[in-house]
Write a structure and sequence with these properties.
cell cycle, mainly alpha, 70% helix, CND1/NCAPD3, two-stranded antiparallel sheet, Condensin_cplx_su1_N, single chain, 1404 residues, two-stranded antiparallel ribbon, extended
């Protein structure tokens, strides 16, 4: 290779190193660039070694650096003592940096190490020179060659790091996918080699970043050593910051690398760098990368100078978003700086809070959310600052007390501090007001951010007392939010308000109400003298005003009262002055009153807070029924915490929540059980890991069951049975419950017995033992129950008996247990007969029904022969009821109730016997089949004889015959049982005797059976009888429907029960009930919401089980979608939702009927129709269904009777999914709807369809859309012109009709006035007449108005406003009234002023 002595001239700008001629410079001397790869690598290593050697020489004697360029030289008298650097070193470094990609990882690391070492040596030289400089000596700048040397090495380090940073980002992208291993394999490097390379590069970058931090510190600290007047060169200073920005771009960078980068930027800012440039770079960084905001805020935390933060806040306040995805992302990223800086420097953000508040009206929502979070942090941070300032103020006051001489400056500082505190308090109050308003932001994410901010404030204890109630109200209001996320955070905020409440750990309102009463009584009994006299003055003023208004006082009285009032006011003022005197007694009184007033205000706010939480119970209960699991979970958690604070709503809410035990979601069930344990079984705050004492558990369960309804008890039973099955509730608790059921009185007795029954659902052994059954007999049916007529305890004991099954068949006959069971059955029969009942006590009678029903159920559960016991009961009750000629209504009611329920139980008993027989026959048949198969396999193993085939055939025939006999026997058994149900139970049987009596009472043709209870029991008994026999049902069904219609305005409970009974009949006898299906649908219009809900529930059950048809009656169900009753609306929506899940999607077939029925119903408003169809058409998700519906709806335009129907059809078309086929259908069938496009609403719907079609249109479809749009516009314009013309013609017609009408009215008026005038003429005929002498020269022909004859006469001299002016060309109707038919004389009144006066009187 030819030796070249390269010359490296220092460029004017460092950026020129990337351009010509530097990128064309040759390699250094002795460098063989044509060698192979191994030799080139060795040559590169040699160059690096030379640099290390040069560094060592420079570090020791500073003799290696003679000049950076051949033009530079220094004298030995310079402070650095350098003689000049070598151009070869710089050329070598430049070559290595340019060829860095060709170096191995180890060589790259050594190169960066060499550059770092050189920079550190130079920095050390600067530091040494500064420290050794004589303070009196003038400040000397670094030599020019050192300046260039330092800048070139810094730039080479930047280039190396930039190259490594690019490689790092590429590797990060590769590692996120699956291409990393493929890339490594392709490049011929193993994964371990790649990892080693990355490790070396990461270490090199960390070392270089640390060096950059050192360089930035040296340049900023000793800027006067590098630049004149300390004004730094932006190109040099920006080198460390540029690489820092690149390092901060990567989110996966190690923490120490980011720390070095932040230190570099912070040092640059502190050293007086160009703040605008730094801010612009940081803003660009934050706009581009989401994680950068937090890093920049962290950097700002260590900078005392707030100019950078202020400039960034101003830039953020001017952020604009154009709605594009990139713009939204950029705005979201940069807005993250606000909450980040608020956490670290809240005092800075508080100064510019107005800029933040202005951003709350901007888009996107991420910006508003971050602003809200920042405002919340600022509002929470103010307390810490005030505490610190308050502590400093106290310290100063203590010092001031010691130092009597107080400076004016300190007083001014104290005033400024107090002013600052007041300003901060005002700012904080304004921020809290803003947060309250933003709870109604349009974005759910922003509303969530607001709720979280409030939660943080409350958790930190930074919420003022006067804000507790407003925040609680806001949280309760947000419970109704449409977004799940907001509701979840609202419940969390409400729970936080409860947990962090400033009042007490107990929020039972009773103590607070007692305290409030006590305080009010104290104030009433300790009124100040001035207050008493002030009340007297107020009363005197009121009396004066009342008497003055009534005028009851004289002037003397008024003056006297004024004097008395002035004297009273003076006494009040004197009393107030006496109370304000600084005496010990007055001071003590003032302190006591102030303490009592504070206590009164505190108690009032506590009661307000409790009332607010109690008011939230309605919203929380609705959330328990939400489809969202998070709503349910959060509501349950609130109730758990509310129980720990003893809020009354906790027990009520938990009882309602227990209905979720039947939820299909496992998570919801688990949360309900967990909440149940936390509230009633476990110790507070232990998550059920530690249980309460057994007595407390028993007490909680008794209270829970004692205050619950029958519906709630079903859910409680399910929960308790789960806990017993999981062995959560100890057995000792049930021992306590047994003791309570035997010794307690009142509701506690029955509640304890019910809890035992609920536990027995999972563990029958809790009841099923001789001793416990005896205890049950004594506690549930013993002397106490009989004496006190405790029907609730009797019912509870009967419920407990139902948990042990048909035990009489299992016990030994004649044994102790068998005797006890017989006694229990007799006790149940006694209850059913009502032997203890007090007929005159309505409450006792009403409670008997539930106990009697439970006892009948118990008899049919535990007895082996329940039918015989049922017969005994009926006979005994019939004898007692009909022993007199006229049975009492109460007795007859109880008899009908018992007969109906026993009939139903006999049917169920018959069906259970049928199932047992079928099961037994099936078991025997299966056993015979198994034996036959076994014998067949055994015979197959033997040798087959000549006649053996016939034997095998015979065996098979025997099996088939046996199976046929079994099937025939099973069919016979089933038929027998059906005959029993159809003909025996309510037919030829004992109960059938009373069927006609029940029918007679229900019909009540004579009007003798009007007792409400009797009618209710008879009607329900009739329904139960009908559910047993088909023939009886078919005969009496009209009567039952008549009874339902008769009670439309009376008994809601009866109607609701009858609806359920009709549903049972429709399910049991669908063919019989089918003609009466419309009657069941008609109940959806019942005035009672309860009846409507029952009807909807029954119909949903029947429809989903295909027992009745919905087609034809679908409109009545669809109307409930927009019902004001949310339960009805939800039930209707659920029905259609379940129908849509079926494979054939019945909703598709129902929609045409819905459209036809609703569009012609005047009761359906436009908005309701739109809401209904929007919901139903949302199920048309498949293109095939949508296209078919479009075709069906299009055909209805031809038969539409009105424009409103066409509007509805167009609306439905616009709500359907638009497809290519549907667009073509609309285009092909354009003629069927073109005549209605003049209507703006219809045209708007079709325009919406076109808009949706354009969003996905292919070239062919686009052409179709353009053609359709053109035709639509033409028809719309043509139709509008026709409409306008028609409207114009209509208006003209109306004007003409109005004109004709006015003319007719005028004619009538003129005719009436003419008649009046003629009457007046007749009256004046008797007056004086004058001779009429016409002049010949002035004659004219006059036609008389009556006869039409012409006469000759003189012209009348009448003024122009005379009566003749108003007629036609001949004088009109009144034109000749002033002339006589004789032509001789004329009334003189018509010629002068007298005539005009008469005309005025007549109205002319």
């Amino acid at each position: 290779m030819e030796d070249i002595s390269p010359t490296f001239t220092v460029p004017t700008a460092l950026s020129d190193l990337e351009d010509e001629p530097y990128n064309l410079l040759p390699y250094p001397n002795d460098f063989d660039e044509d060698a192979d790869d191994m030799s080139r690598a060795a040559a590169f290593d040699d160059l690096i070694n030379e640099i290390f050697i040069s560094n060592q020489k420079f570090s020791k004697n500073h003799s290696c650096l003679t000049s950076v360029s051949l033009t530079y030289s220094l004298s030995p008298s310079t402070p650095f003592g350098l003689t000049g650097p070598s151009s070869t070193r710089i050329q070598s470094l430049y070559t290595l940096v340019r060829k860095q990609g060709s170096l191995s990882a180890k060589s790259r690391g050594r190169l960066i190490q060499a550059i770092v070492e050189a920079v550190e040596i130079a920095a050390e030289q600067v530091e040494r020179e500064v420290s050794n400089r004589d303070k009196n000596a003038p400040q000397a700048m670094v030599p020019a060659h050192f300046y260039d040397y330092f800048g070139l090495h810094l730039y080479f380090l930047f280039s190396s790091m930039s190259s490594l940073e690019s490689s790092y980002k590429l590797n990060s992208l590769a590692s996120s996918g699956t291409s990393k291993s493929k890339k490594s394999t392709k490049e011929g490097t193993s994964t371990s080699d790649s990892d080693d390379s990355n490790t070396i590069d990461n270490a090199s970058q960390a070392m270089a970043m640390k060096c950059m931090s050192l360089a930035a510190s040296v340049m900023c600290t000793h800027s006067s050593k590098f630049w004149k007047l300390g004004v730094s060169d932006e190109e040099y200073v920006s080198i460390p910051t540029r690489i820092s920005y690149q390092v901060l771009e990567s989110v996966s960078r190690p923490r120490h690398m980011k720390s070095f980068a932040l230190d570099v930027i912070a040092t640059t800012i502190k050293g007086g760098g160009n703040v605008s440039t730094v801010v612009a770079a940081l803003m660009d960084l934050m706009h581009s990368f989401e994680h950068a905001s937090d890093l920049v805020a962290e950097m700002c935390k260590g900078i005392k100078d707030t100019s950078v933060m202020e400039e960034m806040l101003r830039d953020i306040s001017q952020v604009k978003c154009d709605g594009t995805k990139a713009s939204i992302t950029s705005t979201k990223n940069v807005s993250g700086f606000l909450p980040a800086i608020a956490k670290r420097r809240p005092e800075v953000l508080r100064k510019y809070v107005s800029l933040c508040v202005g951003l709350l009206e901007r888009e996107p929502y991420q910006l508003r959310s971050n602003v809200v979070v920042a405002l919340g942090i600022i509002a929470g941070a103010k307390n810490e600052e005030e505490e610190e300032e308050g502590m400093e103020k106290e310290g100063k006051e203590e010092d001031d007390e010691k130092d009597d001489g107080e400076d004016k400056e300190e007083e001014e500082e104290r005033k400024e501090e107090s002013t600052s505190l007041a300003h901060n308090a005002k700012t904080t109050s304004s921020l809290l007001d803003v947060l309250t308003l933003r709870a109604h932001d349009t974005s759910s994410f922003t509303r969530t951010a607001v709720l979280k901010s409030w939660g943080s404030l409350i958790s930190a204890g930074n919420l003022p007392l006067d804000r507790v109630h407003p925040v609680t109200v806001m949280a309760i209001d947000r419970l109704q939010d449409k977004t799940v996320m907001v509701r979840r955070n609202a419940m969390q905020l409400l729970t936080t308000c409860l947990e962090m409440n400033p009042f007490s750990s107990t929020l039972d309102p009773s103590p607070y109400e007692g305290k409030m009463k006590e305080l009010k009584e104290w104030f009433e009994g300790n009124e100040l003298e001035s207050e008493i006299k002030a009340k007297g003055v107020a009363k005197m003023q009121k009396d004066m005003e009342d008497k003055r208004d009534k005028g009851e006082e004289t002037e003397e009285d008024i003056e006297r009262r004024k004097a008395e009032l002035e004297l009273a006011i003076a006494e009040v003022e004197k009393a107030e002055q006496d109370e304000q005197e600084d005496t010990v007694e007055n001071e003590a009184r003032r302190e006591e009153r102030a303490a009592k007033m504070n206590a009164l205000e505190f108690t009032a706010k506590a009661l307000q807070f409790i009332s607010c939480l109690e008011g939230a119970n309605v919203a929380l209960e609705s959330l328990l029924m939400s489809k969202s699991t998070s709503d349910v979970v959060e509501a349950l958690r609130f109730y758990v915490r509310a129980k720990q604070f003893q809020l009354p709503c906790a027990i009520t809410g938990m009882r309602n929540a227990l209905s979720l035990m039947w939820s299909s979601e496992k998570q919801v069930q688990q949360e309900v059980l967990k909440a149940f344990v936390d509230v009633f079984v476990g110790q507070p705050g232990t998550d059920g890991k530690k249980l309460l004492e057994d007595k407390l558990i028993a007490h909680n369960l008794i209270v829970l069951v004692g205050e619950s309804t029958i519906c709630e008890q079903v859910s409680i039973e399910e929960a308790i049975s789960h806990l017993v099955r999981d062995e959560v509730i100890p057995n000792e608790v049930f021992l306590i419950l047994w003791s309570v059921s035997a010794k307690a009185t009142g509701p506690a007795r029955s509640a304890a017995m019910l809890n035992i029954a609920f536990g027995a659902s999972a563990d029958p052994s809790l009841v099923d033992s001789t001793s416990r059954l005896k205890h049950l007999q004594e506690a549930g049916f013993g002397e106490y129950v009989e004496k006190n007529r405790d029907w609730k305890t009797a019912r509870a004991a009967a419920v407990a008996l139902q948990k042990i099954g048909r035990i009489q068949e299992q016990v030994e006959k004649g044994g102790a247990k068998d005797i006890i069971i017989d006694n229990l059955i007799e006790a149940c029969k006694t209850v059913v007969r009502g032997d203890w009942i007090n007929t005159e006590d309505d409450k006792s009678t009403n409670e008997w029904f539930a106990a009697s029903e439970a006892c009948m159920d118990a008899i049919f559960t535990i007895s082996s022969t329940p039918d015989s016991h049922a017969a005994d009961i009926i006979k005994a009750m019939a004898a007692a009821t009909f022993k007199e000629e006229k049975a009492a209504p109460q007795l007859l009611s109880r008899f009908f109730f018992t007969a109906g329920h026993l009939a139903l139980k006999l049917l169920l008993y018959t069906e259970s016997i049928t199932k047992e027989l079928k099961k037994g026959n099936s078991s025997r048949t299966v056993h015979k089949q198994e034996l036959a198969d076994k014998n067949k396999r055994g015979k197959a193993k033997k040798a087959v004889a000549p006649g053996s085939s016939s034997d095998s055939d015979s065996d098979n025939n025997d099996i088939e015959a046996e199976l046929g006999v079994a099937q025939e026997q099973e069919a016979l058994t089933e038929k027998t049982m059906d005959d029993i149900a159809e003909k025996e139970i309510v037919g030829r049987g004992l109960l059938g005797v009373f069927g006609p009596l029940i029918v007679r009472v229900v019909a009540n043709e004579s009007g003798a059976y009007t007792h409400d209870l009797l009618q209710s029991c008879a009607t329900m008994a009739l329904a139960k009888f009908m559910s047993i026999s088909n023939s009886f049902c078919e005969k009496q069904l009209p009567l039952l429907l008549t009874s339902l219609s008769k009670n439309k305005s009376s008994d809601t409970t009866l109607r609701a029960n009858l609806v359920i009974a009709l549903g049972d009949l429709a399910f049991r006898f669908p063919n019989t009930f089918e003609p009466y299906t419309a009657h069941l649908y008609s109940n959806l219009a019942d005035p009672s919401p309860t009846v409507k809900r029952h009807s909807m529930s029954v119909l949903s059950h029947l429809i989903l089980n295909d027992m009745i048809k919905i087609k034809g009656n679908v409109a009545s169900v669809a109307m409930l979608i927009v019902s004001k009753d949310q339960t009805l609306s939800d039930m209707s929506k659920l029905l259609f939702n379940e129908l849509s899940k079926r494979s054939n999607n019945p909703v598709y077939n129902l929609i045409p009927d819905v459209v036809s029925l609703l569009s012609t119903d005047a009761k359906v408003s436009r908005s309701d129709f739109k809401n209904i169809m929007s919901f139903l058409l949302s199920f048309m998700t498949k293109d095939k269904l949508s296209d078919a519906l479009v075709d069906k709806l299009m055909k209805r335009f031809e038969t539409a009777a009105s424009i409103n129907v066409k509007r509805d059809l167009a609306l439905c078309l616009s709500l359907l999914k638009t497809t290519e086929k549907s667009v073509k259908t609309l285009n092909d069938g354009f003629k069927v709807y073109k005549d209605c496009l003049f209507d703006s609403e219809i045209f708007g719907h079709f325009a919406a369809i076109l808009k949706k079609g354009k969003s996905f249109a292919s070239p062919n479809l686009k052409q179709t859309l353009e053609e359709l749009e053109r035709k639509m516009n033409e028809e719309n314009s043509h139709g509008m012109s026709n409409v306008n013309a028609a409207e114009k013609a209509e208006r003209a017609k109306m004007r003409a009709a109005k004109r004709i009408k006015n003319q007719q009215e005028r004619k009538k008026v003129l005719k009436a006035k003419k008649a009046q005038l003629e009457d007046l003429e007749e009256e004046e005929e008797e007056e004086d007449y004058i001779e009429y002498k016409p002049e010949k020269k002035d004659r004219r022909t006059v036609r008389e108005s009556e006869g039409g004859e012409s006469v000759e006469g003189e012209d009348n001299e009448v003024e122009e406003d005379d009566i003749f002016q108003g007629g036609d060309e001949n004088g009109g109707a009144l034109g000749n009234l002033g002339k006589t038919t004789e032509g001789k004389k004329i009334n003189k009144g018509y010629g002068g002023t007298g005539g005009r006066s008469r005309k005025k009187r007549l109205g002319y």
